[in-house]
Design brief:
Distance between the termini: 24 Å
Strand order of the largest sheet: 2-1-3
Shape: elongated
Mean pLDDT: 97
CATH topology: Herpes Virus-1
Structural class: alpha+beta
Oligomer: single chain
Largest sheet: 3 strands, antiparallel
Order of helices and strands: EEHEH
Amino acid sequence: MLELRPSCEHCNKALPPASLEARICSYECTFCASCVDDVLGNVCPNCGGGFMPRPIRPSRDWKDNNFLGNDPASTKTKHRPVDPATHAQFSAAIRGLPPEQR
């Protein structure tokens, strides 16, 4: 189950469970849309994968107790700002490849 991490790992912007700005990679690294587009160039600094919008967990119980009240979002922050120069070096060779080909 997704942790629904509470903030962007780079800029620490709040990303509440219903945020349309949250982006995650397949390892659930979490960044805001601005950082993914403007800083990371859609390359995860932790794994090299791409990002997708994070799904939103239902806020009410529509079926079988599968909702935010039963499975709350994480409160553990992972604030790990990315060094732009280091990320540029890391991502240079893979940035031009679509995520599905990395």
